[in-house]
Design brief:
Blueprint: H1 2-22, E1 25-26, E2 29-30, E3 34-36, E4 39-41, H2 46-49, E5 53-60, H3 63-70, E6 86-88, E7 96-102, E8 108-115, E9 123-127, H4 129-134, E10 142-152, E11 157-158
Parallel strand pairs: 5-9, 6-8
Antiparallel strand pairs: 1-2, 3-4, 5-10, 6-9, 7-8, 7-10, 10-11
C-alpha cells in the first residue's frame, strides 16, 4: 500500500511538473503559441516586444460580456477588474505595459496588458471600461490607437528610447 502511494505521489509530481513546464510561463511572462476559434497565435519574444509599436482599432469590453465568456479571469489568471488600467492583446508578452494613444483626440495613458484578445478581425486591442473612459472613446465603442510597449514583465525589461 505504501509503495503504491509513493508511486502515485511521484507520478503526480512528475505530471504536475511537466504541466508547469508546458503551461507557457517563463519568469512571470505568459509565453507559448495558442489557438482561438481555429486561428493560431504566436506571442512575441521579449526582445521583439520592446521595439514594438503598432496602429489599429481598439475596443472596450463591458463587465457583463466579460464575465459571461471567461468567468471573470484574465489569461494570467487574475480577476477581471473593470476599473483598472488594463487590456488585452493577441501577441504581446504578458504581463506587459503599453502606452495607448487615441489617434482621434490625442489622449494617452499607460496600461497593463494581462489578457489575450481581441479576437475580432481589424482590432488590435481590447481595454477595460476605465481605459475607454480615460481615452474618451467609451461612447463610440471603437477608436483608432497607437500601441507602444513601455516594459515587459515585472519592469526589468524596458524599452530603450
Amino acid at each position: 500500500m505504501l509503495i503504491n502511494n509513493k508511486r502515485l505521489f511521484l507520478s503526480l509530481v512528475v505530471l504536475f511538473g511537466l504541466n508547469a513546464c508546458s503551461s507557457g510561463s517563463y519568469h512571470g511572462y505568459k509565453m507559448g503559441a495558442y489557438k482561438i476559434r481555429g486561428r493560431h497565435y504566436q506571442p512575441m519574444s521579449v526582445d521583439a516586444a520592446l521595439y514594438h509599436s503598432e496602429e489599429g482599432m481598439a475596443s472596450w469590453y463591458d463587465e457583463r460580456r466579460w464575465f459571461g465568456l471567461s468567468r471573470g479571469t484574465t489569461a494570467l489568471g487574475e480577476k477581471f477588474r473593470p476599473h483598472s488600467l488594463a487590456g488585452a492583446h493577441t501577441t504581446l508578452p504578458l504581463p506587459c505595459r503599453v502606452k495607448v494613444t487615441n489617434l482621434e483626440n490625442g489622449r494617452s495613458t499607460v496600461i497593463r496588458l494581462n489578457d489575450r484578445g481581441p479576437f475580432v478581425d481589424g482590432r488590435i486591442l481590447d481595454v477595460t471600461p476605465k481605459v475607454a473612459s480615460r481615452l474618451r472613446f467609451k461612447e463610440q465603442g471603437l477608436t483608432r490607437v497607437r500601441v507602444e510597449v513601455v516594459s515587459v514583465g515585472d519592469g526589468k525589461h524596458k524599452r530603450k528610447r
